[in-house]
Amino acid sequence: MSLNHVRPWRNIYRRKSRQIMVGNVPVGGDAPISVQTMTNTLTTDVAATVAQVNAAAEAGADLVRISVPDEASSKALKEIVKEVTVPIVADIHFHYKRGIEAAEAGAACLRINPGNIGDETRVKEVIKAARDHNCSIRIGVNAGSLERHLLEKYGEPCPEAMVESGLEHIRILEDNDFHNFKISVKASDVFLSAAAYQGIAEATDAPIHLGITEAGGLVSGTIKSAIGLGNLLWMGIGDTIRVSLSADPVEEVKVGYEILKSLGLRHRGVNIISCPSCARQGFDVIKTVEVLEKRLEHIKTPMSLSIIGCVVNGPGEALMTDVGFTGGGAGSGMVYLAGKQSHKLSNDQMIDHIVEQVEAKAAQLEAEKAASDKAAE
Questions:
Q1: 22: which strand partners?
Q2: Buried residues in 117-126 as b, exposed as e (16+ CB within 10 A)
Q3: pLDDT at position 116
Q4: Which of 102, 151, 153, 214 meets the CB 3.0–4.6 Å disulfide criterion with 107?
Q5: pLDDT of 241-274, one tens digit each?
Q6: How many angstroms separate the CA atoms of 348 and 332, rounded?
Q7: CA distance 292 to 364
Q8: How, if at all, do strands 109-112 and 136-142 pair?
Q9: Average of per-residue pLDDT across 24-52
Q10: Contact between 315 and 342 (Cβ < 8 Å)
Q11: Dihedral Cα 154, 167, 232, 235, nearest 10 deg
């Protein structure tokens, strides 16, 4: 991210990692932190899986992972890749041949788990397939499936065991002159994940995929992921993320972006700043924000909107946003544009009018960006 010289306490200094390509998406180096999710449809149901991939892409997913558990799924993957626009990561467990088949089917990345993919000979065959088909690899270490010799050595899953597992697999890839890889060291425990990620970040310059695995449902999983991923990202660790939720994959993408947006690491769509509401509110803040979130989902342009129920904090928050509305009295409030008071508006006209103002501001910002890009050519 660019340095903020006015507010240096906002600066995040990202760990220096080498860059790889996952399809047409750069991961690592100075590339934007990419957002991933994973389908939960049967891979053999091509139509359903394609629909879910496309929905995730529309929500902003840069990469989408698809499980490839059997040969029928490998065959379906070949059809799916043809019908989607985002790079596909093939999730491979237990059977190395699925990795070879996925590379041949057009996967942009193979996610393999060193704890269950098989011996080094089989891993070498997967590496050859990845190289032959210009496919990257993610080494996916998981606390729940560590190799037996590491569990015997350490007694239980721990940061040291996870880092050692990752480095052992890195050695195999590098000994085979394969460097187009990233790594993750996931656990469902936030403390274990954070410690393992800090250890692997110090031990390698490979791009890092962040995630808290099996984080839980929409609310609990979002909180665990925000704590775990948020702290690591704040430390500068992480080049691509996936928020693992027992929920619709689109929700994973939304939460991922919100985490990145809250840290100023990535911007997409409307960032709504709203109060929790109280007895002072001049309109129903909670319902209004709920409706606006739905009505503004189509906006991709990074911008800010403040929806505040009263004048205690409303004017101050509006100063910092592109569009704002602050509740007043007698059934009306104040509209702010570019931080300045613009005009009063009745509450019953508020939602439609705010949507119009946001759309107009988004169009203005896009036009300004287009003009700036053209001038820079």
A1: 25
A2: bbeeebbbeb
A3: 73
A4: 102
A5: 999 999 999 999 999 999 999 999 998 999 999 9
A6: 8
A7: 20
A8: parallel
A9: 97
A10: no
A11: 120
Taking the model in full, what pTM does it have?
0.91
Q: Do residues 243 and 229 make contact, with C-beta atoms less than 8 angstroms apart?
A: yes
Two tokens, residue 317 = 């928050």
Task: With cut-offs at 50, 70 and 90, classify the pLDDT of residue 186.
Answer: very high
Strands 340-346 and 332-337, how do they pair?
antiparallel
**Measured between alpha carbons, how far is 351 from 358 in angstroms, rounded to an integer?**
11
What are the tokens at 159?
């940061």
* 323-357 pLDDT per residue, tens: 999 998 889 999 999 999 999 999 999 999 999 99
Closest by CA to 204, choosing from 234, 163, 239, is 163
Res 82: pLDDT: 97
Which residue has 């947006």 as its token pair?
261
Contact between residue 186 and residue 141 where contact means Cβ atoms under 8 Å apart: yes
